[in-house]
Amino acid sequence: MYTKPNNQMLMNWLSLSNLQIKITNELESVLQEKHQISLKEFYVLLFLSDAPKKKLKLQQLQNMVGLSQSAMSRLVSRFEAKDCGVLKRHVCEDDRRAIYTSITQEGEEKLEKASLTLNEALEKVFARKTIQKELEPFIHPFHS
User: Fold this and answer.
1) Any transmembrane segments, and where (predicted)?
2) Which domains does the chain have, with CATH numbers?
């Protein structure tokens, strides 16, 4: 006789994924509204700012941001097309096929302002009772 497995872990995973999507959408919206950048663009600035010499190969960046090579290339190109001066591309001297992307001083300033906005938004999100209630099973998973 077949017995249906307990789907609680699957349901928890789906709940957590749904919550993450809701929060991501909120962060995306606030960054677009206040800084005219996407969350992925914010991640690019963040990872470049934290990188040694504040530059990374496009391939490294795509792995960190979680985009394909073509999507990463389009994202950097769109950023450059905005003509806001936050990124700069360089050809690698050791390997002419490799391209580095670096953050500029303008990029650092944009990142600093956007980081403040993002932290404020996250504080508001996690202060909400509804979010706290949704997170409860993940904070204390064995108490339910």
Assistant:
1) none
2) 41-126 (1.10.10.10)
